């Protein structure tokens, strides 16, 4: 499963979904909480400031009602609470409790409203911060009373509240991601078990099954998976037994037929020329048939025991030398690392058969091997067989390892073989935890490589 921009693992997507969900929920809660808290605090501050302003206006009006009192003198004696400043308009003149506060701090709209005989409020921004201006007409004293209350403390409180809510949202997002990580492990764990079991089954361990579960959501999956593996194992066992039985049943009549042909071969001179040609043809076909039966039996053994027992150290360098010495024939250039560096763990008989099949393949299709190399590469030991034949086309280099796969020339009957030799090589390599592949040889033909895990030194 892939996204458009970049691939993401299922677990990462689950964690991301939980984190984004927690972020969205916390963002909505933070925005709502802040808006409600800001509105409430502003309303409370405005109500308190308005009540205080009316109180201060009444006090000033009562003082001005005394004969001979002056606005400026009484304003100097007035001490508003909360650090507020007072501005008064009387008979077109402006008075203030501080020199840096005056008519310029009172919005014109509020002045018009108070001049018309109605109280009002307005919020203004000043160099020292936001302020709330409350305007009150005092008709008894013939003045317009304005009180300028600072909102700096409220603004600081709101900033602190925003920071706390933001930290809470970040914490909630992190908690959502952590919960998503925990949930993703619980969700993905059954899939990892299925993937691990499938990987081991693909490697040949057909006795692997998923453990029983009490989760009702997984019961059907576990039961279906185990049933599928049972059916697959039964089918492979049945096919393997069938191939083995057929191969064994054919051995007896084949042996009798080979014996009869050998008897005829001993009296070849008594046959006519056409009879001798027929006898040669039969001997060749019987040899090919016998080799095919041997290959089928070997494949049946490999299928019956796909994971080769690794209980024997084998030096591939020494093994290749033995195979070449036993084969005889034209000299083959052999380059090999020291025997102790080419040791692998495996079944010597099957490894010998795989090396023999590589050399037989070179004999049949390329006139023999041109060079053989055995060397250790990092943690692996490789056997390379080069030939100077026609090579293998790029599109055929994977197919040649399939069972009964033969090239176009072989399909026309110009080359011997049943197409099982290289299949046995690949099955043997896979059973030992390695691999086999075909590439281009520096001699112009094909290069077949058998790679196996090297033994620990």
From TrEMBL:
For this UniProt record, the keywords arranged alphabetically read as follows: Kinase, Membrane, Phosphoprotein, Transferase, Transmembrane, Transmembrane helix, Two-component regulatory system
Q: Does the keyword Transmembrane helix apply?
A: yes
Q: Which GO terms describe its molecular function?
A: phosphorelay sensor kinase activity
Domain HAMP positions: 185-237
Its cellular-component GO annotations read: plasma membrane
Q: Does the keyword Electron transport apply?
A: no
Top enzyme class, one word, equals: transferase
Q: Where does it localize?
A: Cell membrane
What is catalyzed by this enzyme?
ATP + protein L-histidine = ADP + protein N-phospho-L-histidine
| Pfam families associated with the record | HAMP, HATPase_c, HisKA
List its EC numbers: 2.7.13.3
| Matches recorded under InterPro entries | HAMP_dom, HATPase_C_sf, HATPase_dom, His_kinase_dom, HisK_dim/P_dom, HisK_dim/P_sf, Sig_transdc_His_kin-like_C, TCS_sensor_his_kinase
Gene3D superfamilies recorded: 1.10.287.130, 6.10.340.10, Histidine kinase-like ATPase, C-terminal domain
Q: What is its main location?
A: membrane
Q: Where does the Histidine kinase domain start and stop, copy by copy?
A: 245-456
Name the record gives this protein: histidine kinase
| Organism name | Modestobacter marinus
Task: Kindly list the organism's lineage.
Answer: Bacteria, Bacillati, Actinomycetota, Actinomycetes, Geodermatophilales
